[in-house]
Amino acid sequence: MDFKNKTVWIIGSSSGIGKALAFDFAKLGANLILSSRNVSELEKIKIECLNYTTNCSVIPLDLEKNNNYKHKVDEVIQKYSTIDYLIINGGISQRSLAFETPIEIDRKIMEINYFGNIAITKSVLPHMIKQQSGHIVTVSSIVGKFGFPLRSAYSASKHALHGFYETLRFEHQKDNIKITIAIPGRVKTNVSINALNKNGIAHGEMDQGQEEGISADDCSKQIIKAIQKNKKEILIGGKELLMVKFKKWLPFIFYKIASKIEAK
């Protein structure tokens, strides 16, 4: 699949997996739109991307403030005419016990990870339906497949994404709109550092699992391969992915292992 001159809009592209995707798509000659709240970082990434591609734009976007993205979508359409690929990578994790987590934090995580995600998708969909083509990629998590200690709201938000996008795939297959759900396990990014604790502030620590995870560059390349092969889902990571297989095929082993996980 040739991405040259295709319009690729990456939400959450100022760090981690999204940043790696920006560089990889730039090297493939795509027309890039970079979005997140961190405009200064996006501008730096844009400069680097322009070493590989002739078109790269920055459009600030906050997934928590998701009432109306129409003007953002109109800006992209005005500049590039089409949106061929929408990749939604932005989100926030959690490090707190469910009973200690105020409902306001649950709502905040759900607002960003779920409602923000589907709001931008719903804003882009009319254009993809009109052009009778498009590919939407949502970056979920391995905890979208099962619950995990200290991740109650985060896991719930990722589970919700699976239900929404699997439904969307069926509803719009007639419009030639493809859906890929990327499911990373442990990837070495700042996701644990930025995760919210019970007080609603950043956890501030790198989890050992994150530290030992695959690189964001490796994750990006696997996501792009999944897009090229029109994969409906792709699991990305290391041995932790066995937990998904255990949950599906050998649940007694899954629950035995999961019950021994120490919450930290």
Tell me what you see in this structure.
The chain has 264 residues and is of the alpha/beta class. It has a single domain (7-239), classed as 3-Layer(aba) Sandwich (Rossmann fold). The chain has 10 helices and 7 strands. The protein has a 7-stranded parallel sheet with strand order 3-2-1-4-5-6-7, sandwiched between helices. Helix 1 (16-27) packs across helix 8 and helix 4 packs parallel to helix 5.
How much β-strand is present in the residues?
A: 5-15%
CATH architecture: 3-Layer(aba) Sandwich
Query: Which spans of ≥5 residues are poorly predicted at pLDDT below 50?
Result: none
User: Largest beta sheet: what is the strand line-up?
Assistant: 3-2-1-4-5-6-7
Distance from N terminus to C terminus (CA atoms, Å) equals: 42 Å
Mean pLDDT equals 96
Proportion of residues in helical segments = 40-55%
Q: How are the secondary structure elements laid out?
A:
Layout: E1 7-11, H1 16-27, E2 31-35, H2 39-49, E3 56-58, H3 70-80, E4 85-88, H4 103-131, E5 134-139, H5 152-171, E6 177-184, H6 191-194, H7 208-211, H8 216-228, E7 233-236, H9 242-249, H10 251-258
Parallel strand pairs: 1-2, 1-4, 2-3, 4-5, 5-6, 6-7
Helix pairs in contact: 1-8, 4-5, 9-10
Tags for this entry?
Rossmann fold, alpha/beta, 264 residues, seven-stranded parallel sheet, 10 helices
Short overview:
The chain is α/β, with parallel strands linked by helices and 264 residues long.
